[in-house]
TrEMBL record:
Name of the gene encoding the protein in the UniProt record: potD
UniProt GO BP: polyamine transport
Species: Clostridium pasteurianum DSM 525 = ATCC 6013
Name this protein carries in UniProt: Spermidine/putrescine-binding periplasmic protein
Domain of life of the native organism: Bacteria
CDD domains: PBP2_PotD_PotF_like
Alphabetized InterPro entries for the sequence: SBP (IPR006059), Sperm_putr-bd (IPR001188)
Principal place of residence: periplasm
Length: 360
């Protein structure tokens, strides 16, 4: 081979190596970016929180497959999201206070949602926007609202029930079901004392601890998932539960009564968020937009029986739904609403109070 040909061959070889290097970098970069061609959306939320019929309808209309994974608690969700560093999932539906927690972290695990890609955002009732956990709804879009209420059997409970404080009445000994949830139950004691359910003053929390000691003889069951079952079976006669659970109880026993606590109901606003490294962000926004359609949102609400935050859904609501006190809560109750907030390091004291209360 001549020197001239060898030189040309060497130049070509170097050129090919450069091309391969850039190609490898390009492929590497593309692996970290959204694969817009993949017709998939990875959903992470509570079990049955998006009805199967709605999921199947979305898949049929868009050709996008929904991979549904579920968690039991907001804290479990956060731990898993931290473990994958904000990747793997495309849409997460979680509670308000945990969004506040995520927003305070050094490494933000969620990304801004492009509202231009979610035109049905306009259907959200403005009353539920710009809340404490995400002032401008930069990272979150409301999905549903849950409210805690008192449900009791008037055949067994002869006392007038008006609020949280009434659960301490001695006549209710060994008859109450409470949510197996520290913030909910400790919040009840704080409410009885006239304090915030997000109290951080150690002295006030110790007073709440003393109140719980007095409450314990009335508690028969702790149940976060199915507290209504003990009311239906007759094992308990009064309890605190979420609206969807209260509705299930009334369907089985129409004699049961619902009371909105006069001190104000505890509400939890669940929201859509998109993880910072979501592999299919465009599909995530399509999914969110689909669930915010008025008719679809009404179908969801009728199925899961949480409070609708969607104004476009109201025209589809049945009289049965509008008359259901468990899931259609009057607007005036929202003015007294109590929302959980992050209490930071004081969480340790809450945990200690809860542990001692359960062991009494």
């Amino acid at each position: 081979m001549s020197k001239k040909l060898l030189k040309i061959f060497s130049i070509m070889l170097v050129f090919m190596m450069i091309l391969l290097t850039f190609s490898g970098c390009s492929n590497k970069n593309s692996s970290n970016s959204e694969d817009s061609s993949e017709k998939v959306v990875n959903l992470f939320t509570w079990a049955n929180y998006v009805p199967d019929d709605v999921v199947k309808q979305f898949e049929k209309e868009t050709g996008i497959k929904v991979n549904y994974s579920n968690f039991s608690t907001n804290e479990e969700m956060l731990a898993k999201l931290q473990a994958v560093k904000g990747s793997q999932y495309d849409v997460i539906i979680c509670a308000d206070y945990i969004i506040q927690v995520m927003g305070k972290q050094k490494e933000v695990l969620i990304q801004p949602i492009n509202k231009a890609n979610v035109p049905n955002y306009k259907n959200i009732d403005s009353s539920y926007l710009n809340q404490y956990y995400d002032k401008d709804n930069k990272y979150s879009i409301p999905y549903t609202l849950g409210g805690q209420m008192i449900v009791y059997n008037p055949d067994k409970v002869k006392k007038d029930i008006n609020g949280i404080k009434d659960l301490w009445d001695p006549s209710l000994k060994d008859s109450a079901v409470l949510l197996d949830d520290p913030r909910s139950v400790i919040g009840m004691a704080l409410t009885k004392l006239g304090y915030s359910i997000n109290e951080t003053d150690p002295a006030k929390l110790n007073k709440a601890k003393a109140e719980l000691k007095d409450l314990k003889p009335n508690v028969k069951v702790f149940d976060a998932d199915t507290p209504h079952n003990s009311l239906i079976s007759g094992d308990t006669s009064i309890g605190i539960m979420w609206g969807s659970q209260a509705s299930a109880a009334l369907k089985e026993n129409p004699k049961l009564k619902i009371v909105y606590p006069e001190e104000g109901m505890q509400f939890e606003e669940d929201n859509f968020v998109i993880p910072v490294k979501a592999p299919h962000k465009a599909n995530a926004e399509k999914f969110i937009n689909y669930l915010l359609d008025g008719k679809i949102n009404n179908d969801i609400t009728n199925n899961i029986e949480y409070i609708s935050v969607n104004t476009a859904a109201k025209k589809y609501m049945s009289k049965e739904y509008l008359n259901n006190k468990a899931v259609y809560v009057p607007q005036e109750e929202f003015r007294k609403a109590k929302h959980l907030e992050d209490v930071g390091d004081v969480t340790k004291q809450y945990d200690l109070i809860w542990s001692e209360f359960k062991q009494q």
